[in-house]
Amino acid sequence: MSGFMDVNTWMIVGFLLAAYSVVANDSLQTLGTYISSNKTRSPKGVQMLFICTITVAVLMLGWFLKNGDPAWGRLSVPGREFPLPEPFTWVYILPPLAVLALTQWGAPVSTSFLVLSSFHPTNIGQLLNSSLTGYLVAFGVGLIAYGLGMWLLERWVFRRTQEGKEINRIWFGLQWLSTGFLWSMWLVQDLANIFVFLPRQLEFFPMAICTAVLCVGLCVLVATGGGPLQAVLRTKTNTSDLRSATVIDFFFGLCLLYKAFLSSFPLSTTWVFLGLIGGREIALRIKEKEFEVVFTNREGGNLGRIIGNDLWKAFVGLVVSLGVALGIQTLI
User: Is the distance from CB of 229 to CB of 32 less than 8 angstroms?
Assistant: First the structure.
C-alpha cells in the first residue's frame, strides 16, 4: 500500500480538481433534487451528516473489501487496468479542468471518458462499449417502466401540481431513501474518476484524509445549494417535482447497481442517466398521445428536439473528451 511519500504535488492537485469537478458535474443527477427540496425542510447540518455518512461508509467498505483500493477495484480490472502514470506530471490535471469548462457550458459531459481515457487511451473502446450498454439498459428500463405503469404516477403528479396541492410527507421519507441508495451506487461507479490520480492502494491514514476532503467538498455543495443546474433536466416532465425525482433516483440507482454486478469496469453514469430520462420521456409522450391528455412538459419543444439536443450535447462532450484525452498524450 502507498502512503504520502508515494504521492507528488500534481497527484494531489489532480485529486482535488477531480473531486470538485466530478461532483459538480454530476451533482444534479444524484443530489440536486434532494438538496433543493430540503432547503427549508431540514437543517443543512443534518443533510451534510446524511450525505457524508453514506460517503464514508461506501469509501471505507470499498477500501476494506478491495484490500486498500479506494476505487472499488474499477481501475485494476485484469487486462483492462488504468495504471498510475510514471512520471505523473502537470498534464494530467487538464482533464478535470476540461470537465469544469464543459459543465459551465451545460453539456452532459462524461467524466469517465474525459478523465479515465487520458490515463490509458487503449481502454477507450471498452469504456465506450460499457457506457453504451449502460445507456441502452437504462433507456429500456425507462421505456418499459413508464410505459407499463409509471406513467399513471406522472399524470397524477402533473395534475396535483396544476391544482397546487401539497406533497404528502411520506414522499420526503422516500426521497431520503432513494437519494441514499442512488448516491451509494454512484460512488461505487464514479470513485474511479477521482481516485485515478492517486496510487491504486492506499494506507488507512491517506485514505482517511481523502475521505475527509470529499466530505468537506460535499458539505460545501450542500451549503451553497447544489451545483450548476443542467438544462438537460429542465425540458423533461415533472423532473423538478419531488415525487417524480424520487422515482427517477430509484430507477437510476437500480441501473447502476445492475451494471456494478455485471462488470467491474468503469462506465459513464451520465450516459446511464441520459438513457433513463430519454426512455422515460418517450414512454410518457406515447401514453399522452394514446389517451389524448396532456401531462408532459412541452417547454423544450417536440420529443425529437428534446432527445436530439441531449444526444447532441452528449456527442459533443464525448468528442471533446476524447480530443483532450488523446491530445494530452503528445504532451507526456
Answer: yes
d(Cα 116, Cα 196) in Å, to the nearest integer?
7
Q: For residue 123, what is its C-alpha cell?
A: 481502454
Q: How far is CA 114 from CA 23, 124, 128, 291, in A?
A: 14, 10, 11, 43
According to DSSP H, which parts of the chain are helical? 9-27, 33-37, 44-65, 94-105, 111, 117-119, 124-145, 151-163, 170-195, 204-223, 231-234, 242-262, 269-291, 303-327
Q: Residue 63 in contact with residue 70, Cβ under 8 Å?
A: yes
Range picked from 20-29, 215-224, 225-234, 297-306 for highest mean pLDDT: 215-224
CA angle 228, 230, 235 (to 5 degrees): 145
Q: Please, what sign has the CA dihedral across residues 173, 176, 182, 184? A: negative
The pLDDT tens digits of the residues spanning 71-127 come to 999 998 888 888 888 888 899 998 888 887 777 766 666 788 888 888 888 888 888
List, for residues 225-274, the tens digit of each pLDDT value.
755 544 555 555 566 678 888 999 999 999 999 988 888 888 888 889 88
Specify which residues 286 forms β-bridges with.
none
How many C-beta atoms lie closer than 10 Å to residue 331's C-beta? 10
Nearest to 209 by CA among 60, 37, 311, 24: 60
d(Cα 63, Cα 73) in Å, to the nearest integer? 9
Comparing CA positions, the residue from 163, 162, 153, 161 lying closest to residue 287 is 153
| Sign for the pseudo-dihedral over CA of 154, 155, 161, 166 | negative
Range of the domain at 256: 4-331
Please count the structural domains in the chain.
1
